[in-house]
Design brief:
Blueprint: H1 10-19, H2 29-144, H3 152-164, H4 166-198, E1 206-208, H5 210-220, H6 222-225, E2 229-234, E3 241-243, H7 245-262, E4 267-276, E5 279-286, H8 316-326, E6 330-336, E7 340-348
Parallel strand pairs: 2-4
Antiparallel strand pairs: 1-3, 4-5, 5-7, 6-7
Helix pairs in contact: 2-4, 4-5, 5-7, 7-8
Length: 357
């Protein structure tokens, strides 16, 4: 075998030249050729193995990438499911709260109606009684002008007059009737406020007086406030708003009750209203303990509350936020720990997307 006929495998050629020399090639040609074939077969086998390993590596990499992509998709899907579950829980809780408010509203409206009936005839009877008393007092005054002759009859009448303390009785009975009339009027106003507050919206947008809504809400929650705070009203000249009145009343109720609960001993709650351009503004400020700055960004989150366990659901401000958004407005908050909190509601006088009256 000559070099012109066949080129040895490079590794074999180096070994032969090193150990046998170039002149040994003819003598060892058959052996060298066999070894050369073995080298070349080994190379081919190695190349096959390398190609197989490359293919296997590519296959493993592909499967690994597919697995990673699948795991990433699963993690993303789980995260989306967690968000969806949280939103569903929030919607469910808000739905329950809305149903609860609707039920309370229907119950309150029924109670107000039942109270209104007896209040009506008590008021009517009181008015009639006032007329009767006035007539009796006139008659009594006429009798007092008569001069009775001296004798047992006059003495008996004078004694009865003294026992009854007639002079005091004539003045006090009129005062009692006036106070009773005032009480009946107050009860009637409370019942009317309760009916106004508890009115269940049927989805119809109406023109409403925001001050009337604030006042009726104040009367409804008066028991929560009167022992904790003095209410200061600073009402501006605000036009009628196109809104869902009962839902806005719920917002006012949540903010007023929160304000009272934030006052630890005794303080004040200030309600301001004004207009800025096409926006009606309602501010409810308290002198309570305030909200730490790091919590301000979370107070409108569903289920978040700074109240002790059992004192709040964490849904009041979240629902209020949703109602104000539904009206095309926004709600802002500013607070300083130890000094108090101010909630600022901005409502469009003509909400976008709502047809005019």
């Amino acid at each position: 075998m000559s070099e012109s006929e066949h080129t040895l495998h490079p590794l074999l050629e180096r070994q032969v030249r090193k150990h046998l020399g170039h002149e040994a090639l003819p003598a060892w040609s058959d052996f060298i050729e066999a070894v050369d074939r073995a080298y070349r077969h080994a190379d081919e086998a190695r190349r096959l193995v390398e190609r197989s390993m490359d293919l296997m590596s590519d296959e493993l990499n592909t499967r690994l990438e597919e697995k990673l992509a699948t795991e990433t998709a699963l993690r993303r899907e789980r995260a989306e499911q967690a968000v969806l579950i949280e939103r569903l829980e929030e919607a469910h809780s808000q739905l329950l709260q809305s149903e609860k408010m609707a039920s309370i509203g229907q119950l309150a409206a029924g109670v107000a109606h039942e109270i209104n009936n007896p209040i009506g005839y008590v008021s009517s009877n009181l008015s009639t009684l006032g007329g009767y008393v006035a007539s009796l007092l006139d008659l009594l005054a006429a009798y007092e002008e008569l001069e009775l002759p001296e004798g047992p009859d006059k003495e008996r009448i004078e004694a009865a007059r003294a026992r009854a303390d007639l002079a005091y009785l004539k003045g006090d009975i009129v005062a009692l009737l006036d106070e009773t009339r005032d009480g009946i009027i107050r009860v009637r106003n409370i019942v009317q406020d309760l009916k106004d507050f508890s009115h269940v919206d049927l989805g119809d947008w109406v023109l409403a007086d925001i001050h009337k809504g604030l006042n009726s809400t104040l009367n409804v929650v008066n028991n929560e406030i009167k022992y904790k705070a003095r209410v200061i009203k600073e009402y501006g000249d605000v036009p009628m708003l196109r809104c869902l009145p009962a839902q806005l009343n719920q917002v006012f109720m949540n903010l007023l009750v929160n304000a009272a609960q934030a006052i630890e001993e005794h303080g004040s709650i200030t309600i301001r209203t004004s207009v800025a351009g096409e926006l009606a503004i309602v501010e409810i400020a308290d002198t309570g303990r305030g909200i730490p700055e790091h919590l301000l960004s979370r107070i409108f989150d569903p289920f978040f509350t700074t109240k002790p366990v059992g004192k709040g659901t964490g849904l009041g401000l979240s629902i209020a936020y949703g109602i104000i958004q539904k009206h095309g407005g926004r709600i802002e908050v500013a607070s300083e720990p130890g000094k108090g909190t101010t909630f600022r509601i901005l409502l469009p006088i003509h909400p976008p997307g709502v047809p005019p009256a």
